[in-house]
Each structure stands twice: as structure tokens, then as C-alpha cells.
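Hi F.,

I've been meaning to write this up properly since the lab meeting, where we talked about keeping a consistent format for the predictions we share between groups. The idea is simple: the sequence comes first, exactly as it goes in, then the C-alpha cells exactly as they come out, then a line or two of notes. No screenshots and no reformatting. I'm using this chain as the first example so we have something concrete to point to.
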Amino acid sequence: MIMKYFGRLHPGWLIAAAVVAMAAQCRPDPPEPPEPPAPPKPDILFIDTSYDISCEGATITFTLEAAGAWSATVVGGGSWCTLDKSSGEAGTMSSVATITPNEELVPRSCVIKIKVGDTLGEITINQAQLNVLTASPDQFQVPAEGGVFTTEITTNIEYEVTLSDEWITWDDATVTVAGNPKSEERTATIILSGAGLAATLTITQAGTVPPPDPLDGIVTLLQTHATGYGIPLIFMGDAFPASMIEDGTYQSAVGSAVEAFFGEEPYITFRDMFDVYMVNVVSDRYPDSTSGESTTLGTCFQGGNIVGVNLDKCQEYALLAVEDEAVLNKSVIIVLANRETHAGRCFLTFIDMQDGAGEDGICGLAVAVSALGTSHDDFVGLIQHEAGGHGFGKLADEYSYEGIGAIPESVTETYKRLQATHHAYVNVDFTDNPESVLWSRFIADERYRAESIGIFPGGFGYELGVWHPTGQSIMNLDYGGYNAPSREAIYIRLHKLAFGAGWEYDFDEFAAFDIKSEEVVSQQARHAARSLQRKMAPCPPPVIIAR
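Output, unedited:
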């Protein structure tokens, strides 16, 4: 049998529990802990305490907050770091520091020290060095056999070396150049680069001069003078390889040029006054060179019908024939450029332009350059115009370019001076007065009526302000023979060179020769049929070289 018992609480325990509960409800919350005191404010407060500046320099503005009066000094900056303010009162302020460019090859630093009371603050300025990368020398002219060369490198940076070609090497500022097996000049570069900088060395190496061809420079005397002292006429070709000398092509071209030169009066009659030479010139480039760099005499076609030449090389070869510069000054060099085109030009040297050097016929060396023409007749006309007319006769162009207008006064004065001192350009004049024009006596002479000598506008390429004697002539159209004033000028120079300054000119003697059996007049008529070649543009006027 299970027994259940129920206890009874004592009334005193109930009272004690109630008291405890009430006490718990009436106890106050513990107090909040006090906030810690604020840290003391510094005497100096900087926004930035360090600056990195490039070598170019800069101005920087730094801001500070000072608790009291302050002062600032720059330590280690010398004159390259300056402040616009070095002191101030308490508060927030700004100061500007000016940093000049650093031209040294090392970096530099300074410290701006700012003092407030006993407190010292610092701002550090770090400036980068000036980076340099140079090489001296940086240009090298190297002979064909090569060599070893040094350069001095000035730098404070790491750099890389780039070579443009395999025939150069680099070893710590030493350049080694291999020999050049080719005849052409060559160029290479060495580039040093780093930190955004670069230095370039240029190496230009000469080409290897090939051994002289045994045919080159051979002089052949084609004709010896029979009258007078002998007038040198020197023929040579350019852009002809040795094979063209071996097979006779070169000699044939020169022979055609010789016959063309002596194909008109007065050269026909007085041919025996000349010593005629042929000088072999071997060129390694055949035959259509337009730059002149690869031909021995440097002939080059410069657009249209303009042709140029290396005058020094022409004289060098000519002196193989005459061996005397004094004789060379009486000579005409005739250069045949091996190209079948219509092109030519003459280069005239006038010695002592103010001193009457033309009185004995010596004007100075002439170099007449002619291409081979587009046909035989064209070639003949080029030789007679450039060599016989300009080169020996010192004659002017009688043609004019359409639209070119009047000849300038300054140009007129130059030509007038040459007419007076060297008896040059006497086939043109600057007046249309038939009584005073240079060829007035031909106009008045009945013996020349059949030649229709008159006063025709144009000359030296100009349309106005200059006149010439006939409507058709070699100096106008490259055919038609030399007109009477031109024949006279050639006749006078022939005799002065052949017989010296003591020879005296007589017009009637010239006229008696000139009109003998009316041969000249009938010859002029025959030339009129050769009209097709002046359909081509005239070659440019001579280049005058005064000395």
C-alpha cells in the first residue's frame, strides 16, 4: 500500500522570500564608467610629411596646423629648395616650396624643419637625379677595310644596345666594323636606350674601290692639229661598261659625236685646228642609271631632258689627255651619257669675269653633256647645240618658253657683262634697234640678204626683252646650222685659240670665207628639211660657273 504525504510550509519562510524579492526589485543600476580624457592635441599637424619630385623640379604646397607661432628652415637644400614663408602665427596655413631642376647625375634630398615652441616637425623632399645617356663621338666615317673604334658613354642609367646590322659589333663602348666587300657605301646604326632616353651612333662605311679596269683611262689621239697651236677637244662616255669598249660600241658613239661636232661651218673648214682625244671611261653600271651614284662620271637624268654630271671627275679624266690645267681651260669636254633619250646640258666656266679674259679666246673649261638622242639626227642636234654652240662657241639659247615673259634686268646685266668681257652670248641682244643690235652689219650687208637675218623676239628662254638673229638655227631648233652671228663668234674664238692674242679680226675676211660659193646659204636650205626634232622640248640653258 502506497502512502502519500503532503508537507505544509511554515508561514515564516513565505515572508522571508517576499522580502528578498522586493529587495531585488528596488536595488539601483550601477553607474556608467567615466569617458577617458581626450588625448592632448599636437603642437604641429601635417597633412603630408614626404614628397618625391622629378628631376625637372616643381612647386609643392604643404599644409600644417600649428598650436602656436612657428618657424621653418630648409636643411640640406642649399639654393635648390626655397620657401615662400618661413614663419607664421598659430592656426592652419599653407607654404609653397620651390624645387629647381636637378642637373646632377645623382638624386638629392633636403628636410624642411618646422618648429612650434619646443616641438620640431620635419617634411622630407626627395628629388630624382637627371638621367643622361650620350655617346661621343656618335658619327663614324669608316674606310672600306673596316676597323675598331671607341666612343665615350656618359650615363647614370641601365641601358640596352640594339645593332642594325650584323657587320658591326659592340663591346663596352668599342665598335668593330667588318670590311665592306661591295663597292657601294653602307650605313648602320647602334641605338643605346633606357629610362626613356636614347643615343644613336651612325657608322658610314665607304665601299670597296674595285681594281681599275685595264681599259679605263686609256687615251686615244683621234686627230692632231695641222694649223695653229692646237685646240683640245676631249670626248668621253659614261655608263659604258668594259664590254662596250671591247666590242667597239664606245668608240662608235664617240666617232659619231666627233663627226657631228665637225658637221657644220665654220667647224668643217677649220677642223685642222683641233687636237681631238678620246678617253676611255669604264662604268660598273650599265647603262640606265638615273642617280649618277653608280657611274664613273656621275651622269644622272634629273627629270625631263635635264642631265647632270660630276664635273670634278670629268676634269680628272680629261687631264689624262692634256696633262695641263692651263690647256684644259681652253678645252671642251664632251660627255656622252649612254642613254637613248633627248637630254643635254652644258656647264661653262668663265675665268676672271671682270678682267677681259675672253680677249685671247680663253673663257675657261666647258663640259657639254649629251645623251645619245632618240635618233641619229636628234643626237647630231644635241652635240651641235650643247658642245659646238654652248661649249665652244659660248653661244646663247635663241628659243623662248611660252608664258615665261620678260627677261629680268638682273639677268640681263650678267649676260651683258659676259658679252663685253668674254665675247660670249653675242648671238642675242637686248635691243631691237637694227642700227645698234650686235649683228647690225649682217642686216645691212647685201651678201647676207639670202639668210634673212633680222631681229626676232626671244632668247635665253625668255619671250620679251631679248632678241635673236634668225627664225631657224641650231641654237633655236637644234637644226638649221649656225646663223651668221653665231658663225662669226665661233670663227673669232677658233682663231684666237689657234693663233693667240696677236691675231686680229677682220670682218671682210670673215665674210669672204663665210659666203664662199654661197655654200653656207645652200647648206642652210638643206637643214630646213630636218624639222622633226624640235618637236621635242629644248634642253635647259647652260650652267654658268664664274671664277
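Notes:
The radius of gyration is 49 Å.
The chain has twelve helices and 29 strands.

If this format works for you, I'll send the rest the same way.

G.
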